[in-house]
Amino acid sequence: xxxxxxxxxxxxxxxxxxxxxxxxxxxxxxxxxxxxxxxxxxxxxxxxxxxxxxxxxxxxxxxxxxxxxxxxxxxxxxxxxxxxxxxxxxxxxxxxxxx
Length: 99
What we know:
mainly alpha
């Protein structure tokens, strides 16, 4: 039993890296959108909007990875549940019954 507890304390659940990567992608989307929001219609806005769309699509695709990740420890299960609970509807896949 002691060996099991030791292993749980020393091995980090990979879900935390998945969650952290999702947070970084979300921050990139927010940053790109804030730039687009400051511009008026024209070539600069179109370029910034295209970048925002690329960032949004990357985040949307990675949300699927996040939702289908499998935590290996209770702390990871809790962290994933909290993260997914805060996702906006547009990041939630309609293709799977992930609930």
